[in-house]
Every structure is written in structure tokens, then in C-alpha cells.
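Onboarding guide, step 5: your first structure request.
Type a short instruction followed by the sequence, for example:

Predict the 3D structure of this protein.
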Amino acid sequence: MTVVIHHNPACGTSRNVLAIIEAAGETPVVIDYLEVGWTRPQLLALFAAAGLTPRTALRTTKSPAEELGLLDPSVSDDTLLEAMLEHPVLVNRPIVCSPKGVRLCRPSEAVLDLLDRLPPGPMTKEDGTPLIDAKGNRLD
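The system replies with C-alpha cells like these:
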């Protein structure tokens, strides 16, 4: 199974999702979207597959969204997309693609539904909350 993670290494949730994928035995394709940026067709395809809109995919905290005036509900999806292309950090992360679907994995346990098998436990979320117990059972 091929798993792709659009990853920000500075983000705790993104790092935790990557660790969960790797612990499940997958070797994901890691795309550092802050380095490589986005293309308009790529974002449109990811959002469509994940059931997101530019508004629901917009990272509103720890991003320049407020300074750029993007939080106003009257801002169009097209304007948001253009801003995301110019400022890749505006896209919330991590977005994970697998044969089981595409999902914005916030909270991090959302990635579990995209994997063929659960990682062995115990495993916790980035905030220390138990996610998988020592017997390998999901706790979410």
C-alpha cells in the first residue's frame, strides 16, 4: 500500500501522524509542502478527495490567515486557493492519501482509518492522550 503524507516537520500533529504511519509498517512518501509548495490542481484534487473546501482546509492559527484578511467569511474559495498557493502554510495539515481515502488528519487518530493495520501499542497522541493500548486496541 502506498501512503502519501503532506507533512510539516515543525507540526506536532504532523510528526505524530507520520510516526503512526511508520509504526504501522508503512514507508510513506513524505511531501514537505512548505518546501515544494502546492499547485492549484493538486489542492483542488486533495480537497475534493477529502471532502474539504478551501475554507475548511484553511489553517487559521499559527498562520498568516488573519493578517491576510482571509478569516472574513465573504472571502471567496478562489481567493483562499490563490493565497494557499502563495503561502503554503495556510493549508492545514497533515493531509494523508492512501488507497483507503484522503483525509486531513486532525486529530491525528484520523489516520488510523487510512491504514491497513494498526501500529502496535502502546501509542499516544501528540498531547500524551492514549491512542492505542499495549494490546494494540484503539482507544479513540
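Each response can be followed by summary notes, for example: The mean pLDDT is 94.
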